[in-house]
Inverse folding.
């Protein structure tokens, strides 16, 4: 049996779509702010002014517009709260996904011997989502425009079908479609983060070296201009801020550790975990891949 993301509840897909949209908004707003700040610095450093009349300076006006646009983008981003909604909906989506997998393959607390597992699933799900509502998560089911999803849709036919399979079928499906899939995802993200770290580190180093060269030239009186020095500094700061915003460096360490833990769990599930130990093994795997665990690793490995 194959179990994919399409087999998860409608509520997961709603929260996932909102998280992706909000992430795009948050990243775009930060990118625009940094680019506009650099643009303002470029316009301020131009050696010509393009004057109109006796007092109006076109380049200065364009620079002022760039800084005003920064304030406008910042004000709009504060009102949208894109980053907060992105993180809350990502937490909701991953919580729903994790709980659905645990239910479908008899992971704790939905062990094979548990009576009323469907009711327990609904109770646990609503309790977890209620905690997210306390910190500002907006339930898509309460938004008519998002499309309602009643309680019956929380357990999909594919989830029921997988839950009814024998242990070996559930184990093979979980290892292949969840554990290995997540392990590969963390590996891909580690590779992407390493490439991005190398790119931005090299860019910042080049800009800083050029700024150092300009500072040395001014020190020995070769040049008296500070325009290019200020522009290089602004560009380096913008690159550094973008790199820190994307958190590439701490994510490399966190994702590598998660990948190692999943590799160890994969080996254990294939060789040592019995049916009696299965429920706890699934629970531990879902804890490892949870966003909260990754965030904890990022904070402590930064």
């Amino acid at each position: 049996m194959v179990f994919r993301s399409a087999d998860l509840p409608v509520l997961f897909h709603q929260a996932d779509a909102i998280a992706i949209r909000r992430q795009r908004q948050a990243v775009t707003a930060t990118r625009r702010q940094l680019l506009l700040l650099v643009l303002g610095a470029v316009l301020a450093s131009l050696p010509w002014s393009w004057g109109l009349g006796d007092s109006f300076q076109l380049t200065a006006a364009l620079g002022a517009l760039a800084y005003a646009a920064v304030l406008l983008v910042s004000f709009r981003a504060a009102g949208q709260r894109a980053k907060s909604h992105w993180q809350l909906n990502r937490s909701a989506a991953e919580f729903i996904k994790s709980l659905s997998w645990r239910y479908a393959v008899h992971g704790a607390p939905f062990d094979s011997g548990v009576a009323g597992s469907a009711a327990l699933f609904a109770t646990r799900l609503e309790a977890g989502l209620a905690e997210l509502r306390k910190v500002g998560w907006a339930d898509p089911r309460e938004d008519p425009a998002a499309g309602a999803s009643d309680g019956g849709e929380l357990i999909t036919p594919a989830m029921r079908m997988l839950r009814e399979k024998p242990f070996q079928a559930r184990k093979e499906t979980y290892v292949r479609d969840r554990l290995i899939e997540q392990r590969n995802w963390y590996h891909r993200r580690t590779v992407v983060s390493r490439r991005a770290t190398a790119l931005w580190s090299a860019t910042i180093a080049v800009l800083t070296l050029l700024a150092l060269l300009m500072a040395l030239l001014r020190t020995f009186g070769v040049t008296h201009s500070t325009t290019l020095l200020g522009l290089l500094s602004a560009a380096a700061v913008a690159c550094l801020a973008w790199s820190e915003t994307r958190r590439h460096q701490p994510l490399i360490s966190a994702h590598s550790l998660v990948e190692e833990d999943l590799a160890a769990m994969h080996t254990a599930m294939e060789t040592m975990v019995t049916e009696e130990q299965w429920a706890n093994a699934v629970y531990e795997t879902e804890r490892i891949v949870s966003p909260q665990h990754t965030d904890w690793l990022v904070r402590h490995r930064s």
Observations:
- The chain is about 75% helix and 0% strand.
- Residues 148-152 have pLDDT under 50 and may be disordered.
